[in-house]
Design goal:
By secondary structure, this protein is mainly α. It contains 15 helices and no strands. 80% of the residues lie in helices and 0% in strands.
Length: 394
């Protein structure tokens, strides 16, 4: 595969880490800025909402700009956002910096997808797009342990400085190795939304939103949860997060194998059901650090196992608009992240972080209902939306 695709994937990994990197240092941020833990959790909510909305809008607004130039300008903007986060004197400035970082990161991801698909022959396009998504998903699961390690050692501002430096290296690599690429026609936002007339597809995207909502209700506040229930030290917490990240990455491979072996429909039903069970067991497993670690690993694996099965399901259910569905599902994922972190903050404010997992399970069960309804949805009731051949994802 063209090595330039890996440059784009690395850039997505670097920029993607900033979304959940605050998850492991919420307590440090809340203490330093003198805000509540639930308020600091909104740093994830605001970021995810901005990310979900900004990508398609910014891509349409910059449709006439040469791609390499736009990519580099966006990376510079991202660096500015993270430097602003590093030196934020208040919570309000940090929120504004997160919005700037989210908007630029969203544009980087969609630009990476479109540019990667242009760098290869059509028969290798799915593999190229998959490589970009590996960078994105890897950043989401590894960002928290990286943030914790640096935050506990050097303060909560250190992770943002690290991301700024790595983003600068990505900028230099893009400037050195990427060639100019003229903008190509993209799928209009109106046409993307038109595909949502298909009830089967809408339910599949709702499945993503609800799964991530349930997951982030606990995951966004996993640090205070583990501190309150297991009284872990900072070093042990970092170890827990690294194990979580490794299990999540492994889960993606396991989910792909399960989907190929048993089909996407059966895989989705099994994975979502098992995921709900593991989340329900998390608070109960805290009587033992070892039992909790095993349950957490299974929960982590299942959290990303559903992605390959769901992507296969979307391609199978709507092959004529598969690329559009991948783009919309990415936005759905970030909507779920935003909702989950918001709901988790409310639970902490009104009750205790101990109950976050059980509240999250409720959303996962609704996701299971959506899965069942989507799979049973009669294809004759669907409205087919055909994406023009050769057009890129927006």
């Amino acid at each position: 595969m063209n090595f330039k695709i890996y440059i784009l994937a690395i850039a997505c990994f670097v920029t993607g880490t900033v979304e959940l990197i605050v998850g492991g240092i919420l307590d440090l941020i809340s203490q330093d800025l003198n805000i509540s833990l639930s308020a600091s959790g909104q740093l994830i909510t605001i970021y995810s909402i901005a990310f979900a909305l900004a990508g398609p809008i910014l891509l349409a607004a910059t449709a006439a700009v040469e791609r390499k130039k736009l990519y580099m300008i966006t990376l510079v903007t991202f660096i500015i956002g993270n430097l602003l986060s590093t030196f934020s004197p208040s919570f309000e400035v940090l929120l504004a910096a997160r919005v700037l970082s989210a908007a630029s990161s969203a544009l980087i991801v969609v630009l990476s997808i479109t540019m990667a698909s242009q760098l290869v022959e059509p028969k290798y396009r799915a593999r190229a797009i998959g490589t970009i998504y590996m960078g994105v998903s890897g950043s989401l699961v590894l960002g928290v342990p990286l943030g914790m390690m640096l935050g506990n050692a050097y303060g909560w501002r250190a992770p943002f400085m690290m991301i700024s430096v790595l983003s600068l290296l990505a900028l230099l690599a893009v400037g050195r190795f990427m060639t100019k690429a003229q903008p190509t026609p993209s799928v209009p936002l109106k046409q993307q939304l038109a595909s949502l007339k298909n009830g089967k597809i809408v339910l599949a995207h709702l499945l993503s939103i609800l799964m991530l909502t349930g997951h982030l209700t606990l995951y966004a506040y996993l640090t205070p949860f583990l501190q309150e229930t297991l009284h872990l030290s900072a070093s042990t917490l970092s170890l827990f997060y690294f194990i979580f990240g490794i299990a999540a990455v492994a889960g993606g491979g396991v989910g792909g194998w399960v989907s190929d072996r048993f089909g996407p429909e059966k895989s989705i039903l099994f994975i979502v059901s098992a995921f709900a069970v593991m989340m329900f067991l998390m608070p109960l497993a805290t009587f033992s650090i070892y039992v909790c670690l095993v349950v957490m690993m299974l929960w982590s694996m299942l959290s990303w196992s559903v992605s390959p099965a769901l992507q296969s399901y979307l391609i199978k259910s709507a092959p004529e608009s598969a690329e559009i569905q991948q783009s919309l599902n990415s936005s759905a994922l970030h909507v779920g992240i935003a909702l989950g972190s918001a709901v988790g903050g409310v639970v902490i404010e009104q009750a205790s972080v101990y109950y976050n997992a059980w509240v999250g399970v409720i959303f996962v069960l609704f996701a299971l209902v959506c899965a069942v309804l989507s799979i049973r949805w009669r294809q004759t009731r669907s409205t087919r939306v055909v994406a023009p051949v050769g057009e890129s994802i927006s």
